[in-house]
RNA sequence: GCCGGUGUGAUGGAAUUGGUAGACGUAGUGGACUCAAAAUCCACCGCUGUGAAAGGCGUGCCGGUUCGAGUCCGGCCACCGGCACCA
């Protein structure tokens, strides 16, 4: 008997100190072993510290990486901090502390919390996006984008958060409110740096075919990019200009009974003197401009619009004259900003036509109701009608036929459109990377020369955003005033900073070679580690960080900086941790669980184990303080086995099959993110050990299987049972246990016996018994025998080692 | 409206992908140990039924395929997430 209590607190401190000292998790940039790069989304170091949302994905990847090391891989599992951002800045404003100081404090806190949980990060590769030698390279990438024409300045209506006093990306404005603070978002004309992500739209779709992302991520990205194929068609107008429209249904061209332009369309002002009702039109344009996006979409149940009196369009295929309207249901920013309206086959056009009593002409037949009652929008079943040479064709055939005709006649051509918009890249805030551009009155925008990077973020007196919509940096006149790198004349620095997403768009590259002063990472390091083998992160980043970083990576690939087209080979995602009632955790509900409390009460191993045991990793689960005890109890039971097991290094025969089965299950389950059932299997094995008795030989594989999940207790018992002494190393440096398929099967199996498909009995027979043996054994069962009286056995279905189903019928 | 996902005991969740539904855990019940409690160990634990059995019912609802359906097909309902006047 080894009599030592499971003092988790001391044990965990001991091993954490040892890992920091011995560095068993340091990755090497040169190795004969196969490489594995496991990545988690680096945290934003908020003032609140780690919350329970963090340990779930972190522990999962830690388990995978610990297992990979034991399987003989050279593993890179790094950590860093995505530390630029608004919460830190807002805290700094409120408390008059420099954001730099706040950030350092928060990072220190995060670091100690992450170490407290025993993660096997390579701490020598820690990065911080706010460090000048890091953001130097963020700025460098921006300069490359600028040089290739992918960064440009444009004045355009942008999403403006009224509370943050800052521009938001499309992706950050959710339902008319700011994703971060919830304040209303309004439209504002501003001159902004933009990144041409749209240039990569098709490749961002196509290359999804070559990566191993979970399907819902691929689907969500494809939907977000929103590719559609259709045609652009020119309509003559009585004003003389050709009005160009985009449609995905060129087949319905004969059904176009009017046209609609967006209120922002450039022709409108040009046509002012031709319009009899210009006052009315101008009033509508004004009203539309004043509406926020939210008002334009959400509140717009009823369609509104104004007819242009004095200008009409001509349908190019039948020369019919049709009216033109303006309406805010047509968006200026998509397609050409104008549409042909086919009310018979588009619900929005139908609503508008009904309200304005415009003709509805059926050109596709097959709808359940008349098109006067309901638009028929189905493309699969319809047949063309009222469309001259298209009549009788299917919708698909009609599309190709009309496009071919239009291209021959010079009326229009096929066209692909995307919903994806260019990325608004400027923020009027302090705590971000300065955009390395200078404006010279004579030369215009001039990039800061690479050798002058980084453009350091200067210290300012106040971080308050200005009401004029300019960055706090604009008040730093000394810093703003500079000389033009081109002509040497007076120039002003760009005072906007980059968005939060900049630093995180390439951070995984920096981990490969974090101290490089010459490049964002060396060619060798990039060649060795690229791509990230497995990246796990939240679904909320699918159309933000994940898309942005794929875009940057493709660009870096194009200019020869990185060796792979895609940054991440595999992408998985975890579900959220909800509060006890299945509700979102929030301060206001008071159901927030602090990992520190759990670690203090039960230990880091219990915390890790429980967060993985709690339910399906990919789905949302609710936290239960009560249930944590079960995981702690399991570790106590393992500890007690370690104290009481027999000294023999032989395995107990009764445990053998269970051990091999468990190795098989845990090995496979980790790969499939089924941590909960892996843990259940280990619990089952421990229950067997209690029932059958156990030896050191039985404990050995159990401890190795447990070590990625609960590394501290595993190391301690490994040492205590003498394995470390006799084999000279920590558990984390052992080989991953292997199973013998032959030993996973039992000698005897219990089969279900069904009669007519209903379970009536079970019978135990030797493994792999043939049908005759099984049936004979089944018939010895009293219940089965009784059911077979006076019956004839007409059919036997045998599923080997599982079940036998006997079908009887009355004897004739 | 469109695109994903989910629905299983008191409860968190399992189920080798068509083969013994409820593994593993929590809560609960009974017992052992203890002066006692906690902890620990052992047993029971879907509903109904009975003295105990037998039997019947049971994976959101209705129908279908099959020797056999939580799993497949058709039609609904509810909840969660994403997108949303993108022509």
Label this structure with key terms.
35% helix; RNA-binding; alpha/beta; 812 residues; seven-stranded mixed β-sheet
What does this structure look like?
With 812 residues, this protein is α/β, with parallel strands linked by helices. 35% of the residues lie in helices and 19% in strands. It has 26 helices and 32 strands. The strands form nine sheets. Strands 11, 12, 13, 14, 15, 16 and 19 form a seven-stranded mixed beta sheet that branches. The protein binds one RNA strand of 87 nucleotides through helix 7, strand 12, strand 16, helix 11 and strand 28.
List the helices and strands and how they pair.
Layout: H1 8-22, E1 35-40, H2 55-70, E2 74-76, E3 80-81, H3 86-95, H4 99-116, E4 127-128, H5 132-147, E5 151-161, E6 166-168, E7 173-174, E8 177-178, E9 185-195, H6 201-206, E10 212-213, H7 215-225, E11 228-237, E12 242-247, E13 258-261, H8 267-270, H9 278-290, H10 293-297, E14 306-314, E15 321-326, E16 338-341, H11 347-355, E17 364-365, E18 383-384, H12 395-409, E19 412-417, E20 423-424, E21 437-440, E22 444-447, H13 477-480, E23 481-483, E24 490-493, H14 507-510, H15 523-529, E25 534-537, H16 545-558, E26 570-573, E27 577-578, H17 595-602, H18 604-613, E28 621-622, H19 628-644, H20 653-671, H21 675-692, H22 696-706, H23 711-720, H24 723-727, E29 748-755, E30 758-766, H25 771-779, H26 782-788, E31 791-799, E32 803-810
This protein binds one RNA strand of 87 nucleotides through helix 7, strand 12, strand 16, helix 11 and strand 28.
